[in-house]
Design goal:
Blueprint (H helix, E strand, L loop, with lengths): L5 H12 L7 H7 L3 H4 L1 E4 L2 E4 L7 H14 L1 H9 L14 H4 L8 E3 L5 E3 H20 L13 E5 L6 H10 L7 E5 L5 H6 L8 E6 L6 H24 L2 E4 L3 H7 L6 E2 L17 H7 L1 H20 L6 H15 L4 E7 L6 H13 L17 E4 L10 H6 L6 E6 L7 H20 L3 H10 L4 H11 L7 E6 L4 H21 L11 H10 L14 H13 L5
Parallel strand pairs: 5-6, 5-7, 7-8, 8-9, 10-11, 10-12, 12-13
Antiparallel strand pairs: 1-2, 2-13, 3-4
Helix pairs in contact: 1-4, 4-14, 5-20, 8-12, 8-15, 12-13, 13-20, 14-20, 15-20, 18-19
The structure holds 6-O-phosphono-beta-D-fructofuranose.
The site of 6-O-phosphono-beta-D-fructofuranose (F6P) has 14 residues, from loops.
Amino acid sequence: MTPVAPDAAWNRLLALAQRPGATAIRSLFSRDAARFEKFHWQACDMLLDLSKTAIDDAAMQALLGLAEATGVMAARDAMAAGERVNNTEDRAVLHMALRAPPGAGFKARRADGGVDDASADVDATMAAMERFTRAVHAGEIRSATGETFTDVINIGIGGSDLGPFMASRAMWHEGSPMRPLYLANADAHNWELIRPRLNPGRTLVLIASKTFTTAETMANARVVRGWLEQTLGTEGMRQHLVALSTNHKATAEFGVPSDRVFGFHDWVGGRFSLWSAIGLSIALGCGWDDFIRLLAGARAMDEHFLSAPPAANLPLLLALTTVWHVNGLGLDNHAILPYDHRLSRFPAHLQQLEMESLGKRVTKGGLPVKHLTGPVIFGEPGTNAQHSFMQLLHQGTTPVPADFVLIANPSHPYAGNHRLLLANGLAQAEALLRGRGEDEVRAEMTAAGKSAEDVERLLPHRVFPGDRPSTTLLLPRLDPQMLGQIVALYEHKVFCLGVLWDVDAFDQWGVELGKQLSTSILPELLPEGRVGAHDPSTAGLIGQLRAWQGLDN
Ligand SMILES: O=P(O)(O)OC[C@H]1O[C@](O)(CO)[C@@H](O)[C@@H]1O
């Protein structure tokens, strides 16, 4: 088949999406009784159901044609081969090397033409992490007071917080070896919520920062170091410090013993780093064996992504569904609805993974993008979401595609609660699809005894438009392996979207300006400071803040 140019593939897809009735999902079911069978896939012990989207055979072919025209699979193989696919930072992207079995042979190609043996570095770090984790759990490594460590606090932000926090929340259970806590916000109220629950004599402190320069993390690290030092003294304090970083010089200057520094390379992006040393809090909190199961799950999804043909490749299919919704239908919001409270931090993790990767307006080549890119990601666990924002998804002016994640078997004995949870998750997706028309609403209100006048008055408010798209992921259970799989699924979805939209999904230049401006504002907030040259709004706000702080009376 002669290759189609990307522009032609885009034009073909957009024409299909603009057909009359292109969003009439219900009619697709009525026209094709086998729609569910044709539009759901099973791989890696999970089921992906796209039948409640408006993607039909023609649209799927056009989407797969776009994937071929943009070279998604070849780009995937280049990433796996250690090519520098993060082109603006001139780096390889090798989070797959982090969860590969020992001796996997991943190589990272360096800008100077050299090659790093990525797998050898990963294997060495994993071995050091395992030794440390098992020694802490066995009480061979003890605190400055001679006690065992019971709590571990991870000080980090962004990818040095969100991924580990999400995974620990999903994996931790009553029998887990330690209690993992997460301190991220520069706002010390975050620390004040945690501190009263901690005993310095039994708390291990992980300072998680790839650069070891992030202002919020270093400010919190200094506060917690001082808290330790008050009780343990300087030498004692140092026995409680661990650093997870690529910046060994800065960790030494901070006072972290050299044998307590666990590193990783610049080919690990922050939002893809929970599988690396950044994930040490997961291993300490939830157990080394479960951490390895988490990595094994991600590896299983890697193998699927690297081997499955495009038409059965779950990450690619999820990515193409997003292209259909964002670019075909102009729906640039996306709800993540995990119907499992252990996944309550999953939407927050995906916000960084997707929006920091795909919130781009310039192509890899530096030209303005031709098509919309990253959608706004938000979400809450079900059933909470139903009592929060689902009204808008059902009856708002613009449809919002939603991903439902349902888990067949819980890890608790409350079967009645679980059936209620699943019934609600399934019902929400069905309600979005089928809606409820005037005739049905009129009959229901009449049967309920409403007067004809009330029926007509309330009718418009109680109609559900329906034909609102959703995707469903079914998992048999949520254990570390399944968690690793679903997180890696979304990582690879993001990769595919980066290629489809021709953006660099691995840099994040957009976070720099705010950091720079905060550095210039900071001295203006000191008691001896003065309001500087800003727009009138910022200047006015600084002035009022200083007045309320009693600084400029
Ligand atoms: O791990 P570091 O270097 O402290 O960076 C923290 C986070 O800040 C960012 O650089 C910007 O949000 C993220 O990409 C990263 O995960």
